[in-house]
User: What shape does this take?
Amino acid sequence: MPRRALVGLARHSLFLGLAVYLPASYRPGMSAVFYDTHAHLDYPDFAAELPEIVQRAATAGIERLVTIGTDLESSRKAIALAERFPAVYAVVGWHPNDALAAPDDIRPELHELAKHPKVVAIGETGLDYYRLPSANCGSIAEDEVLKKKQAEIFKQQLQVADEAGLNVVIHTRGDCFEQTLEIMQPFTPKVRGVFHCFVNEPAYMQRVLAMNSIVSFTGILTFKNAQTVRDTLAATPMGSFMLETDSPFLAPVPYRGKRCEPAYVKEISEAAAQVKNCSLEELSAATCKTAKTFFCRLN
Ligand SMILES: [Zn+2]
Assistant: This one.
């Protein structure tokens, strides 16, 4: 239900003396804006209606969209989108799932892309041991080749981030959390990471924060079976997390299973405010400030 309708309904019901449902975090007359700190707007899923996607986000109060590159071509597209839409910013890098397609040294081109004034971080990068070749009829030897290449391009991206004065967007999935921290360690605390789509227990979040890094939460927060994720958010201090959609993936309830888009940060923020037991305005102030600090060129 749109906010304006809720206000109308609240006034109307006051007049009639009826009780209506309002979210605990709802405060009439105040606006809460949010950012989508992780979306893949260059994916073909969005090609036919990008202006509408960006407009729907603005209408929902989602004022900044950070689109994330997954290889050099996708990173160039992310920059082109940032040039086309004032609300869009870009992150450039190479995703671990596509590691084998990467050239031996991605640093020179990434350095060039990172100079763009609307590039706000490097990534997404990291490790993914969830989709290894051996899980799909491949061999253990093939797993090792992929793991080695993922680690190599992860280190290269940390070097570029370090030299460019940018932070990194981290993807870590499967049994590789320790290895991810180990590779990052020499670059901390100067280079900070956002461990995106965070789904681990609170103890893992504490280890991320201990490295001067932060976490971000997706629409998984709204899933019935995701109590662990809500427990982790509850334990995460304000100022140490951001919100994201990971569009086109992970649409929150009530859109679960459909294509996700940045406007749905609204549903994610409502769930997050419930978990943090705070107002949408408090959540807005904290998460937007965190994003502006983390993505130093975001304004
Ligand atoms: Zn992503």
Q: What stands out?
A: Residues 38, 40, 68, 124, 246 surround zinc ion (CB under 6 Å). The longest strand covers residues 119-128. The chain has ten helices and eight strands.
